[in-house]
Design goal:
This is Mu-like prophage protein gp16. The protein is an all-alpha fold. It has helices spanning 7-20, 25-35, 47-59, 73-76, 81-95, 104-115, 125-142.
Length: 144
């Protein structure tokens, strides 16, 4: 099995460890020099030396934390006009007494039943337009 060889990742971890351990430049360079045959810059280290330095920092109490996962585009994306309209129509149905639960989870459950899609934010434009029209029809039936 080939080791996970990512030099830039190892260099970044070393610099994070230096900061989190509160090492000044002189102390940091002394540690590198003692561990790696006089080398005083992490950029000059080979893969095994990088690993040796990381293990040393870990022995001093530093813990390498996994990188935070980036948020997905579906959670970062602003709601489309259709999604906002669906939510407004759903809340209107709730005010009219046709829908018991006004929550996002209730809209998602309805969307799953009607369109096989887990959340109304994930509908494509045609599906969202169709759902909005269906909710409008439902409102007109309830208000007659």
């Amino acid at each position: 099995m080939k080791p996970n060889y990512n030099r830039n990742n190892a260099l970044a971890k070393i610099h994070i460890a230096k900061k989190e351990l509160g090492l000044d430049d002189d102390t940091y360079e002394l540690i590198l020099s003692n561990l790696c045959k006089g080398k005083t810059s992490a950029a000059d280290l080979d893969w095994l030396e990088l690993q040796k330095v990381l293990k040393h920092f870990e022995s001093k109490g530093w813990i390498s934390k996994p990188a935070k996962k980036a948020r997905t585009t579906t959670t970062m994306k602003r709601d489309s006009d259709e999604v906002a309209l669906i939510r407004a129509l759903w809340l209107n149905l709730h005010k009219l007494g046709a829908v018991k639960n006004p929550s996002e989870q209730a809209i998602a459950a309805f969307t799953k039943r009607q369109y096989g899609v887990g959340h109304h934010k994930w509908l494509d434009k045609n599906q969202a337009t169709h759902m909005a029209e269906a909710l409008k029809s439902w409102i007109s039936r309830v208000t007659k």
